[in-house]
Write a structure and sequence with these properties.
The chain has 16 helices and 11 strands. By secondary structure, it is of the alpha/beta class. The strands form 2 sheets. It has a 6-stranded mixed β-sheet with strand order 1-2-11-10-8-9, sandwiched between helices. Helix 5 packs antiparallel against helix 12. The longest helix is centred in the C-terminal third of the chain and has 22 residues. The chain starts with 6 loop residues before the first strand and ends with a helix.
């Protein structure tokens, strides 16, 4: 784990620890900011996204569809989506890809299709050539609006490639799963084709949709125990609504805001291993789209050990003091013990360097990288982002500039 610090903890310390001694913010100042957020907790507890992990009917609908669409023959799952509609699933999946645990049965591979890639048709041809049967393939299309141009284009390309590989049979429609709002064009497309459809509630935005079918279905189809992901988020939720100084969401929001107000407008999430990079990108979108409004808001960056230490550490320590750092790690690692020991020594040396340079940081430490821990982490980041939006006086759920950009295309 990373170095010593003051523990903000409670009975839920098996889920996450927030170490803030090196945040270099006066205790009275951050505690006053935390106290000012107490009235906001009631509104946080009323938000629909906050209760998604606890909604048994969502998990049941996802698992029932997985049972009907996925068997041991499934090899490839194309996830066609962009931004919040796919980043949550990708963040969790890339911590535990199929090859990560040789002791588990072989699981299908998810291919994430997000941006517009001119070479995609050729890539799809090669991927589909690996398959011998149609039931080795599943195509999941996710767009909550049902109008995202990139997603619709990639959907058409994947469907055309599948038909070229397996023929024009209507059986291909049975390998399609659409996830969207019931009012969207994708719901009509699913009905027209007789394909499967999973609805996402109208009041759930893409970047807050991890615990909806948009995040849960592709992960469950790839063989991940999404009930553990939801359990971790559910378990931490009570703690995240507690009006006291042990609430990590309150403390995280308050410290991020105080540093932002002090001129540290760049918020850097440092992850201690490459497999967590997509988790960082998920958090980057969450912060950017939720808080970057009205000419205000922090600039979120993602950095990953070890390469980014050799490209960014000099700037972090010798450049302008305009950044606040989150170091994210876990207590327990799986794998080669020699590598684990070396990684821990390097982590501590890095933190010592930041302390010597008087660069402020905090640590978010998970007990491990289990799905339960990852679910708790994501729920924490959701809550802290909404609370910081209150301090910035912005709406964390809209995205007016994004919508204007979509209309201008």
């Amino acid at each position: 784990m990373f170095g010593p610090g003051f523990f903000i903890t409670d009975c839920y310390n098996t889920l996450v620890r927030l170490l803030i001694e090196q945040s270099l913010i006066n205790e009275a100042l951050w505690q006053a900011r935390v106290t000012s957020l107490y009235p906001t907790l009631e509104r946080l507890g009323q938000e629909s996204f906050f209760h998604l992990p606890q909604q048994a009917e969502v998990l049941t609908s996802v698992k029932e569809l997985v049972q009907s669409k996925v068997n041991v023959k499934l090899k490839l799952l194309f996830l066609v989506g962009i931004g919040g509609s796919s980043e949550g699933a990708q963040a969790i999946y890339e911590v535990w890809p199929p090859e990560s645990d040789p002791h588990q049965p072989e699981r299908p591979q998810i291919i994430f299709l997000e941006g517009l890639e001119p070479l995609l048709p050729a890539k799809l041809q090669k991927l589909l050539a690996r398959l011998n049967r149609l039931d080795e393939l599943l195509i999941t299309v996710i767009s909550l609006s049902g109008k995202t141009q990139e997603t619709l284009t990639n959907y058409e390309l994947v469907l055309a490639a599948a038909r070229a590989r397996f023929g024009e049979s209507l059986a291909i429609n049975d390998r399609l799963v659409f996830i969207s709002r019931s009012s969207s064009p994708l719901a009509l497309e699913a009905k027209k084709l007789g394909a499967s459809f999973l609805p996402v509630a109208e009041n759930i935005g893409g970047r807050y949709s991890l615990f909806s079918p948009a995040g849960l279905f592709p992960l469950a189809a790839a063989g991940l125990a999404v009930e553990d992901l939801c359990a971790g988020a559910t378990e931490i939720s009570e703690w995240l609504l507690a009006p006291d100084f042990s609430n990590p969401a309150l403390v995280l929001a308050a410290l991020d805001y105080e540093h932002f107000e002090a001129g540290r407008s760049i918020l850097v999430d440092w992850f201690d291993r490459p497999s967590l990079e997509s988790l960082g990108k998920w958090g980057r979108q969450l912060v950017a789209e939720s808080l970057g409004k009205n000419g205000d808001g922090p600039t979120p960056l993602v950095a990953v050990a070890e390469n980014d230490r050799h490209s960014l550490l000099q700037l972090d320590l010798g450049g302008p003091d305009n950044k606040f750092f989150h170091f994210i790690s876990s207590d327990r690692d799986l794998g080669d013990e020699k590598i684990i020991r070396l990684k821990h020594r390097i982590n501590e040396a890095v933190l010592q360097a930041y302390r010597r340079a008087h660069r402020p940081y905090l640590e978010i430490i998970l007990p491990d990288l289990s799905l339960r821990s990852l679910g708790a982490y994501c729920q924490l980041r959701f809550a802290a982002t909404v609370l910081m939006a209150n301090l910035l006086d912005v709406d964390p759920f809209n995205q007016p500039e994004v919508e204007a950009y979509k209309l201008s295309r």
